[in-house]
Design a protein that fits this description.
Shape: globular
Oligomer: single chain
Helix content: 25-40%
Strand order of the largest sheet: 12-13-16-22-23-24-27-28
Number of strands: 57
Strand content: 15-25%
Structural class: alpha/beta
Distance between the termini: 30 Å
Mean pLDDT: 93
Length: about 1550
């Protein structure tokens, strides 16, 4: 049944742009794109750049995907296009609606990493990475002895900082040549190459099972790179970025200031070379404002030369042939146009705007002068604005500069650089200056000489809080001018432009660099990723993936926002984002990060293989320390290294560390200044040996153990995580395997404060660990030992020799030194809990337990999983086959379920509260929450479907399951109490639950769900197998709708239908449990749940026959349909079928339409059911052979159905007139006396059926006023007397059909015979048919022609081109109301309508009446329209009180079926284009019903909604005729 291929569904919705949403997938997954409700029916094309099989990836090349529609019809609910994902990387998709782009996003497919000689897979969650600063590895021939430390410590991935030639600063990230291997790695007599590096990387992969990654630095190059001076266009220089000139001028001025401060020239002004206090800082501020800014006049770069501009303006004004402008243009304003070359006073203004703004009133010199003065004044004003703007930038520049000085020279946590010197200037320079020193004015002249200015290049750096998607060196940014850059003075920022054509050398150079890396390494770390232009990184990574398809890409992002992170992750296909444990301020936060970055909760639900694709958070590479972090020993304590690294490695994601952490190096290893080498591995070395390490050094021994545990947990699927903050310092992390139900629990006591100087309590709280502790996998404590204290070595990066760890692995609990004692408490019969009391869990200690379920529970889980494999292969792992289980479990559930009838499935799956109460039961109630909607499995499944995808284990439903067996026993007990196959299903569940009760309570929700899903999906298949091929081969929507037939058609404890003739052979029987007699048990249709489901109010003639075609005939339930038709036929009285059936004996004959719906169903049955015409000869047991006979028992008077049909027709032609039996408040407490008089007949002239009076309502719009306050009691809101349009249509359909049958001699009557004025007259069916045909459009259509002679009441017309709702109403204006009832006539008797007129009327209905789910029951333009139904409201509003507006606006769903079917029928007659548009409309409207059906806990469609589709609390939640008419629409489609 279950398939194991992982399929994810991405629903496309109109205008949904998901570029900031991360969708992570794995290779081997199938991704299906499906249409969301807003797009169903529309012409949508999905494009993607994921390559076709055999093609190479090209980011710019998109191709469309083919739609697949497995059911090839009806609707778009199952239509999809798919990608089989076999390639790692980032791929884009978008979709068009017609030719308009309507949405899109990215998907990221994870790489598959492989290691070892056998090339086995290394799952991403198993990665344990260690960072090495490459320059500290020493000569290449010594690398292995230094890297061996990583191997022995249990790491499986090494991250090398860049291996290229370094720049002058010696920073690991400032590279002077991206293509050359760092010459430091070679010996004088031996030059090493990339090939040697490649061989080592390959050896590490094959022999050591270690993968290697290294950095790529795209953002900058060392300022001394030779190639940047050969290709200065690759940098931001003053030629290609003239907007930086003002910033450069400021930068040089600050450099000169710095030199003069260093020389002591500003001592008198309060600024000595050694800056030590705030006063000196204030003096710097004063000097900049008073000496520097006035000298360099930066504002001039943004201003206009006033004198020149005025002279030019004057010249233009005095030109001979000047175009004279008389009126200024208010839209145009004079503004400064920036000089693109940024020369002082080089800006201009648009003279055309000036001439249109300042207009002389004549050509005389005085007028010209006046004009020039105004212009002069305006330019001065504009210049002043620019001056102010520059002032604002200067203010920020001073603040940033002083902030920098404070950090570097005064701050406690800063580097304390000491006196200002040329080597350590006041502030870092922002630009290179590769020339001799010269005076500021001489320097400035260079900025306009391209051959010099091209070497004045901007340094790189980072900007606090900046938008990472904006390049801060591009025009429009003032970062350099405002001194907001935290600058790296050793590196030049690279200028790529938008495409490789903008800077060909740079792109080619960096591509070559990338290809070298991708040739030799399995992955890359994107350095400074958040500042790397994203299109550049995309281009380079595409090149890398061509060489290394499963490239592992890691990056650290400092965007401060998950949305922005996602843009980088999705576009670049980042495999893992580096997350820092050092960002945690306490152990509580560290624990939260573990939970945040990986895994699902313990006891999570099993998710199906086919499920929606949900947004993810980026996969984490969780590092206890990165090479940029401050030293944790300084910030926390040396004792914290072990517990924090344990907490980090218990996260269900990749984990990592940096070389030096394990050795307890007590300072930050600087990427810039560190020149010593790492220690080598020597098993024999002594702690005092500074150049070598082994398992006695630092925490290396413990690190090996926790790395091993981390890798095992990742490889064996321990994907569930629980973090428990035991107290302020102790964090317990559980990793749990959902298949074998084993856990590994680590308890770490952190030491964020130094235990030597801070107080830690000796009292450690007890801990309860559920399950049986199999062993202590590891216990480790940080201890001091007697050895020489730490001294920083000159040659090696050495750690603290006096601190190490004491570890013990794989010991029994009683051997532990940390655990004092462990007691066993049982929480319940099958719940083992071990209570741990600690004695030596000192700060810096960890203990890790391996925990199993209690053995008895372990067996029970194994057996459960074994039985669940019949539903899904997922349960194979951890399953246990045994022979001694309950015999019923030896039978596959599918073969037990296959014996269930649809009527029995109604009891197993559904039945609402009132149905269940008839049997003495009820729906299960969840305390502090609510009752389930159904007693059957659907009641539970609806709740689980909400909880499961969200893993909402805290839901009251799950609490109830964990707290006791009540719900479990209810589910099986309810079924066992019934008999036959239902009881068998109950026994099977009971046998499964027997094992369920033996497992720990925290696992019960997930296994309860798994059992129910297996049973439920099997039962649905059983139901569909008993239905028509339309259902069996139908879409998911069709199948789920068809279950409405099972939901609403059932057999209660007491039969709802009158008994059928005993001479019918194939009627279902059962044995009555009380009388032990055989009794008929025909299924009946409930009108709606929950209000019309049981007792007298279950069955209604009208509702039954509106719903019967869709629910029973279309679904292939012909026997049930026949029995219902015949049962109602037996109750015919006065020529009418009852409205409320009341089992026949309590029937009310107060509706005029039920008999016509009944006749329509007989016609449909004859056409759809195999040998359908046979029904006409079936015996009908007449309960009332005469109008006044007492109810007769079945079989007393039988007659064939065709006679009963003829009687109904004859009685109508004769005319029906009677008063309801027991008329008065005992049968209707609201009806006025005249309302109990029922009349119906056929008009001799028109052939129209008519009836009713103004005090009763004989059609489906049957709301009777009930309010005394509003004085509407006993007044029908919608009497619809006269000839109601749908009854005329239904009667036309019946007459036409009987005419056809009589011509074929299938129906023995050709006419009806009636008495008129004492004589018998005959009216042939042919004549009756013709009369209706000839008069219908003449009298019902409201003509577009105001002078139409057929219009009796032209003054009442308010909409033309529609069909009247009735003809001949006692209140004539009611005829002219626009309502949706005419669409019913269109479907059952389309021949009455001229296609063009029909189409016009349907268009008006669509515009005015169509709602999201239903049809407005009245034109919103009508004065009594009100779209909100509130049956509880009682006030003095005549039109609203007590729900008087039930049919005066609220949107009823069943009518939408008729509206859509009418549109489909007539659109075919209007041409192919109209038909195609209509099919779209139908699919689009129905997609909303699909969404409602899927989300509804009732799994049904409601009776009505309030206006615009809003929920109506008074509506039935699932209504028979609604589901039926939607199904019929899909059947027509």
């Amino acid at each position: 049944m279950g398939h194991s291929k992982q399929i994810r569904i991405l629903l496309l919705n109109e205008m949904e742009k998901l570029e900031k949403t991360l969708f992570r997938l794995e290779q081997g997954f199938e991704l299906q794109f499906r249409l969301g409700p807003t797009l169903q029916g529309k012409a949508v094309t999905v494009y993607t750049n994921y390559p076709f099989p055999g093609e190479t990836f090209n980011r710019e090349k998109f191709h469309s995907l083919e739609w697949e529609n497995p059911t090839e019809r009806e609707d778009d609910s199952d239509k999809y296009c798919k990608l089989n994902l076999q390639q790692a990387g980032s791929f884009q998709y978008y979709f068009l609606q017609g030719n308009e782009k309507s949405g899109g996003g990215y998907i990221v497919v994870d790489p598959i990493l492989r290691v070892g000689a056998d090339n086995h897979v290394l799952p991403l969650d198993c990665v344990t990475l260690q960072t090495f600063l490459s320059k500290c590895l020493g000569p290449f021939d010594e690398w292995e002895s230094r890297l061996r430390v990583a191997k022995e410590s249990g790491y499986n991935m090494i991250h090398f900082t860049p291996l290229q030639t370094l720049g002058l600063s010696r920073s690991c990230y400032s590279l002077s040549d991206q293509l050359e291997l760092n010459p430091d790695f070679s010996r004088p007599n031996k030059k090493y190459t990339w090939h040697d590096i490649g061989q080592l990387v390959e050896k590490l992969k094959k022999e050591w099972n270690i993968l290697c990654i290294t950095d790529v630095v795209y953002n900058h190059t060392a300022a001394n790179s030779k190639w940047i001076h050969e290709h200065p266009e690759s940098a931001y220089n003053l030629v290609n970025s003239p907007h930086l000139k003002p910033a450069w001028v400021l930068d040089r001025a600050l450099w000169h200031l710095s030199c003069e401060v260093a020389e002591g020239k500003y001592k008198e002004k309060g600024v000595p070379a050694l800056i030590e206090n705030d006063h000196q800082m204030n003096c710097i501020r004063k000097i900049i404002w008073e000496d520097i800014y006035p000298k360099i006049r930066l504002w001039e770069f943004f201003q206009v030369d006033v004198f020149k501009a005025v002279e030019q303006f004057r010249g233009l004004l005095t030109q001979e042939n000047r175009k004279i402008i008389t009126k200024p243009d208010p839209k145009q304003h004079l503004k400064i146009i920036q000089d693109p070359e940024y020369r002082r006073l080089g800006c201009t203004v648009d003279m055309n705007v000036a001439l249109a703004t300042f207009i002389p009133h004549d050509n005389g010199p005085a007028a010209i002068d006046e004009c020039c003065n105004w212009f002069h004044k305006r330019i001065e004003e504009l210049n002043a604005e620019k001056h102010q703007l520059v002032n604002y930038h200067q203010e920020q520049a001073v603040n940033c500069l002083l902030g920098n000085v404070f950090y570097e020279r005064l701050a406690g946590h800063g580097p304390k650089l000491g006196p200002v010197t040329r080597k350590h200037p006041l502030v870092t320079r922002y630009f290179t200056f590769p020339f001799e020193e010269m005076t500021p004015s001489t320097e400035e002249s260079m900025i306009h000489l391209p051959n010099k200015a091209c070497f004045l290049m901007a340094h790189n750096g980072w900007v606090m809080g900046d938008d990472p998607l904006r390049n801060f060196a591009e025009p429009g940014s003032n970062v350099y001018l405002r001194r907001e850059l935290i600058c790296w003075g050793d590196s030049v920022k690279l200028r790529y432009g938008s495409t490789p054509e903008d800077c060909p050398y740079l792109w080619a150079h960096m591509k070559k660099y990338t290809e070298i890396i991708a040739t030799y390494f399995q992955g890359v770390r994107l350095d400074n990723c958040h500042s790397t232009p994203i299109h550049v990184a995309e281009y380079m990574l595409d090149a890398a993936r061509k060489l290394q398809p499963n490239l592992y890409v890691v990056a650290e992002l400092f965007t401060g926002s998950e949305d922005l992170d996602n843009i980088f992750v999705t576009r670049l296909g980042i495999s893992s984002l580096i997350r820092e444990a050092m960002s945690a301020c306490d152990s509580h936060e560290e624990g939260r990060l573990v939970y945040r970055y990986g895994g699902e909760p313990v006891g999570s639900f099993v998710q199906p293989c086919l499920r929606p694709l949900v947004p993810a958070i980026a996969h984490a590479l969780f590092m206890d320390i990165t090479h940029d972090n401050e030293c944790p020993i300084v910030h926390r304590s040396a004792y914290d290294a072990l517990p924090s690294s344990t907490i980090v490695s218990m996260a269900s994601c990749a984990s990592g560390s940096t070389k030096g952490y394990d050795e307890l190096v007590p300072h930050q290893i600087s990427v810039v200044s560190e020149e010593r080498f790492y220690t080598k591995w020597n098993p024999e070395a002594l702690p005092s040996n500074t150049g070598e390490v082994n398992f006695q050094s630092g925490i290396i021994a413990a690190r090996r153990a926790i790395n091993k545990i981390h890798q095992e947990l990742g490889a064996k699927g321990f994907i569930q995580v629980y973090v428990d903050q035991v107290d302020e310092d102790i964090v317990a992390v559980t990793r749990h395997s959902p298949s074998i139900h084993q856990s590994v629990v680590s308890v770490s006591r952190t030491a964020f404060r130094n235990p030597k100087t801070s107080f830690y309590s000796k009292e450690v709280p007890q801990m309860c660990i559920p399950g049986k502790i199999e062993e202590v996998v590891l216990e480790a404590s940080t201890i001091e030992r007697n050895t020489i204290p730490y001294r920083k070595d000159e040659n090696s990066i050495n750690g603290m020799p006096n601190i190490t760890v004491e570890i013990r692995e794989h010991i029994q609990l009683n051997e532990s030194k940390i655990v004092k004692q462990a007691g066993v408490v049982t929480k319940g019969p099958n719940e083992y809990v071990q209570e741990i009391e600690f004695e030596n869990l000192s700060p810096g200690s960890v203990i890790i337990f391996r925990v199993s379920l209690d053995p008895h529970a372990q067996v029970a889980v194994g057996i459960l999983r074994n039985h669940l494999t019949q539903f899904s292969p997922h349960f194979k792992s951890g399953s246990l086959a045994v022979d001694n289980s309950d015999p019923i479990l030896k039978i596959p559930f599918a073969s037990i379920a296959s014996k269930l009838t649809l009527a029995e499935l109604n009891q197993v799956l559904y039945r609402c509260e009132s149905e269940e109460q008839e049997d003495g039961g009820g729906c299960y109630n969840i305390p502090n929450w609510s009752s389930l909607k159904y007693a059957g499995l659907q009641g539970l499944m609806s709740v689980l479907a909400e909880i499961r995808p969200r893993n909402d284990l805290g839901h009251p439903f799950c609490d109830n399951l964990r707290s006791g067996d009540w719900m479990i026993d209810y589910v099986s007990g309810r079924l066992i109490s019934r008999s036959g196959t239902i009881a068998e299903v109950g026994k099977w569940l009971q046998a499964m639950f027997c094992y369920l009760k033996q497992i720990p309570r925290y696992l019960i929700p997930c296994y309860f769900d798994a059992i129910l899903i297996g049973a439920y999906t099997t039962l649905l298949d059983v139901a569909w197998k008993q239905m028509s091929s339309f259902v069996q081969n139908g879409s998911t929507f069709v199948k789920h709708l068809s279950l409405g037939s099972v939901q609403l058609c059932g057999v209660g404890k007491f039969p709802s239908l009158p008994l059928l003739s005993p001479s019918l052979t194939d009627v279902p029987y059962r044995v009555n449990e009380i009388t032990k007699e055989k009794e008929q048990c025909c299924g009946s249709l409930a009108a709606g749940l929950p209000h019309f489901s049981a007792g007298l109010f279950r069955c209604w003639g009208r509702d039954t026959f509106i719903a019967l075609r869709g629910l029973l005939l279309v679904t292939g339930r012909y026997l049930e349909a026949r029995n219902i038709i015949l049962a109602f036929a037996g109750t015919l009285r006065h020529g009418l079928i009852p409205n409320l059936l009341g089992e026949g004996t309590y029937a009310r004959y107060n509706c005029r339409d039920a008999v016509w719906w009944w006749l329509q169903c007989i016609q449909d049955y004859c056409k759809i059911a195999p040998n359908g015409l046979d029904i006409l000869r079936c015996p009908v047991s007449r309960m009332y052979p005469t109008d006044d006979s007492v109810p007769l028992s079945a079989g007393t008077v039988d007659q064939p159905l065709f006679e009963v049909i003829q009687e109904a027709m004859q009685r109508h032609m004769q005319g029906i007139q009677f008063r309801e039996r027991n008329a008065g408040p005992q049968i209707d407490r609201n009806m006025k006396d005249e309302g109990f008089n029922v009349t119906a007949g056929v008009d001799d002239e028109t052939g129209f059926v008519y009836g009713g009076n103004r005090f009763n309502c004989g059609t489906w719009m049957d709301k009777m006023g009930e309010s005394d306050l509003a004085r509407n009691r006993g007044i029908p809101a919608t009497p619809r007397d006269g000839s109601a349009v749908e009854i005329v249509g239904l009667s036309k359909s019946a007459v036409r059909w009987l005419l056809e049958l009589s011509k074929k001699s299938i129906f023995p009557y050709h006419e009806v015979r009636v008495k008129r004025h004492g004589k018998f007259v005959t009216v042939s069916y042919d004549e009756w048919n013709r009369k209706i045909q000839d008069n219908f459009e003449k009298l019902f259509h409201v003509s577009e022609d105001p002078s139409d002679i057929n219009e009796k009441h032209p003054n009442l017309v308010h909409k033309r081109g529609i069909y009247k709702d009735s003809y001949g109403a006692s209140s004539p204006w009611c005829d002219y109301q626009l309502r949706p009832n005419f669409t019913i006539a269109m479907v059952v008797a389309p021949e009455l309508f001229t296609p063009e007129k029909a189409w016009k009327a349907l268009e008006i209905a669509e515009k005015k009446l169509l709602g999201p789910l239903g049809m407005k029951t009245l034109d919103p333009d009508d004065m009594v329209y009100c779209g909100v139904y509130d049956n509880a409201l009682d006030n003095d509003n005549y039109n609203l009180a007590k729900g008087f507006n039930y049919h005066q606006g609220p949107e009823w769903l069943w009518l939408i079926g008729y509206f859509l079917r009418a549109k489909l029928y007539f659109s075919k007659l209007m041409g192919p284009e109209t038909n195609a548009k209509t099919i779209f409309l139908v699919k689009n409207v129905l997609s909303r019903h699909y969404v409602h059906l899927e989300r509804s806990p009732w799994k049904g469609l409601p009776e009505l909604t309030n206006e615009n589709g809003k929920y109506c609390p008074f509506s039935c939640e699932t209504q028979a005729w609604t589901i039926a008419t939607v199904l019929e629409t899909l059947y027509d489609l």
